[in-house]
Design brief:
The chain has 557 residues and is of the alpha+beta class. The chain has 16 helices and 24 strands. It is globular, with a radius of gyration of 23 Å. Bound molecules: flavin-adenine dinucleotide. The site of flavin-adenine dinucleotide has 41 residues, from helix 1, strand 2, strand 11, strand 21 and helix 16.
């Protein structure tokens, strides 16, 4: 053995860093090993929202919610698909885990206020008070180690390195409309320019980047060692108990002995082709927004030791978003900015709608898979007119853009002077597309989508345009040229993983806990069992089960 610690944590994403931080705060001697040279994993590129029913940050802001309501909601949505004891543990520990981090470290959160659940028609669904986000963080506090924080995806930054939050967007767009917004926008840009004199990007961190930077900063303050370029390759032991792990650290293989156990938090199998083919719906989606290093190491290690993988049925395996592919080969996730706005519809290769375009990103892609069983729907096309792009933007095309030629030239956007021309260019039957648009235009007049109910849920309207009537999500396509943007399914996280009990202890194929082996984050079979109830259902459980794993390990003899 080359080293000995109480707890070894593999993976410095939100789950692994939270497990390491709580274990350290509880007095354990912890080592965190990270395969890449940066902390944050996919979490660094995320929106950073956590779904924590009954959280005290929202209660203090005047929103009422409870674990009981959320339990009814999850019962209605996933019933027997995930273990009820694990769900209960998540709901009952959520507020405690978040308050603990806020009180004992720099990992602090703010309430989101109104942020509707994604299946608002089910009992127990909430409109407000369930979601929280990390407080923005000043990356300058990390000094030289700021470069160790994985940056957000380039498509989500302005000027090649400036992060903007959801609240910044209207103020930046409206900077010439009021003096207050002009000053606000100018301050953001000046701060960014000052940052660039010293740092590789802006240091005003928001969303997922703020979360991982806060975790990293807190770990640093406690002096928790992090080995970079250090990938876990094997755990030592067997089903009757784990005694350590092997780590490929640079060019060396290192054996680390553990007194309490090993936490697998290597981010799931997003880049493991074999697992993708085995677990995901067919045809296996080719795009993943998971960070490159997430090649299923934790799941494979657990499987070799005899762990059970759940869920066992095919298909409930991912958390999805539609993505467009940018000119540089990047992926732009169509989460909430464009699909629900009035004046856009989505069609399959038959030129027909197949989904409520304003549904959650996950449900949109589930509908793509379903439609694809009868009509090719991968890719699907988002269709809109030029007035839509000028007003709301589309994918990487910012609102206010009048000249879309560069995007056409690079093959990102397809345009046609008429709907027929557009249909021919994307290979869908022109008559069908004309008919689909005409029918949708009639819905725009009445405000009622007779086919898919667009605009009927709180979530739809939340992401729509409140100033548009009679339905904030349905508008006509009237101003040529018309545009089409291809979208594909991509995973933002995975749901299939190592089956665990309520303390994140990995279970073997007989359902018995393997002593000393824990899994959290995307290495753990999601408590949501492939359903997407609301904003933050990856990161919420990731932090809560990291907390439970660390607390369980602390109590071991
Ligand atoms: C655009 C986008 C927006 C999102 N927004 C949200 C949101 O708002 N709310 C939400 O809940 N979820 C969101 N998600 C999903 C969320 O980011 C992920 O589910 C979450 O980051 C998973 O956390 P994790 O710690 O398990 O994995 P990761 O964050 O991916 O971290 C895993 C870490 O493990 C490391 N690693 C991999 N293999 C090894 C190994 N063998 N040894 C050591 N280290 C290893 C990786 O390098 C990485 O640093 C979003 C995702 C995307 C892409």
């Amino acid at each position: 053995m080359n080293a000995e610690v109480d707890l070894l944590v593999a993976g410095a994403g939100p789950a692994g860093m939270a497990a390491a931080l709580v274990a350290s705060l509880e007095g354990l001697d912890v080592l965190l090993c990270e395969k890449s040279g940066e902390v944050g994993g996919t979490g660094a590129t995320s929106a950073g929202t956590l779904w924590i029913p009954g959280n005290s940050q929202s209660k203090a802001a005047g929103f009422s919610d409870s674990a009981e309501d959320a339990a009814r909601y999850l019962d209605a949505l996933i019933a027997h698909r995930s273990r009820r004891d694990v769900r209960t543990a998540f709901l009952q520990t959520g507020p405690e885990a978040i308050d603990y981090l806020g009180a004992r470290s720099d990992v602090e959160f703010l309430p989101c206020g109104r942020h509707p659940d994604y299946r608002g028609n089910l009992p127990g669904a909430a409109v407000a008070g369930r979601a929280i986000v990390p407080k923005p963080f000043d990356g300058r506090l990390l000094g030289g180690d700021f470069n160790r924080v994985r940056p957000p995806i380039p498509e989500f930054m302005l000027f090649g390195g400036m992060m903007v939050g959801k609240e910044d967007i209207p103020r930046l767009i409206g900077r010439f409309r009021s003096a207050a917004d002009f000053i606000y926008a100018a301050k953001l840009v000046l701060r960014y320019l000052a940052d660039r004199l010293r740092f590789s990007r802006g240091t005003r961190l928001m969303m997922g980047n703020a979360l991982v930077a806060r975790l990293f900063y807190s770990l640093q303050k406690r002096g928790v060692p992090i080995w970079f370029g250090a990938a876990i390759t094997e755990v030592m032991g067997d089903r009757s108990g784990v005694i350590g792990a092997r780590i490929r650290h640079g060019a060396k293989d290192v054996a680390v002995k553990t007194r309490k156990g090993v936490v697998l938090a290597t981010g799931g199998y997003g880049h493991n082709k074999t697992f993708r083919a085995a677990f995901m719906p067919q045809p296996t989606p080719t795009h993943s927004l998971s960070c490159r290093e997430n090649s299923g190491d934790g799941v494979a290690i657990g499987e070799r030791l005899g762990a059970r993988i759940a869920p066992e049925e095919h298909g409930r395996s991912g958390f999805w978003t539609p993505v467009s592919v940018t000119m540089r080969g990047g992926l732009f996730p169509h989460l909430s900015l464009d699909r629900a706005k009035p004046g856009l519809l989505a069609v399959n290769s038959a030129g027909r709608r197949f989904v409520n375009e304003a549904a959650s990103y996950h449900d949109f892609v589930e509908a793509m898979f379903e439609s694809h069983e009868t009509v090719p729907s991968i890719p699907a096309y988002l269709i809109c007119d030029s007035a839509f792009i000028a007003r709301y933007g589309l994918g990487i095309i910012h609102p206010g853009t009048r000249n879309v030629r560069p995007f056409e030239r690079d093959g990102y956007l397809v345009s046609g002077r008429t709907l027929d021309e557009l249909a021919q260019k994307i290979g869908v039957p022109p008559a069908a597309l004309r008919d689909t648009v005409a029918r949708h235009d009639r819905f725009a007049e009445t405000g009622i989508d007779l086919d898919f109910g667009k605009g009927e849920t709180e979530l739809n309207r939340f992401n729509g345009d409140p100033s548009h009537e009679p339905n904030p999500c349905i508008g006509p396509l009237a101003t040529p040229p018309f545009h089409a943007l291809a979208v594909w399914p991509a995973d933002i996280g995975v749901s299939t993983g190592l089956s665990t009990d309520a303390d994140a202890r990995v279970l073997d194929t007989e359902g018995r806990a393997i002593p000393g082996l824990y899994a959290c984050g995307n290495d753990m079979a999601s408590v949501m069992a492939g359903a997407y109830p609301g904003p933050g259902i990856n990161l919420g459980p990731a932090l809560v089960f990291a907390y439970r794993a660390a607390m369980h390990a602390r109590n071991l003899d």
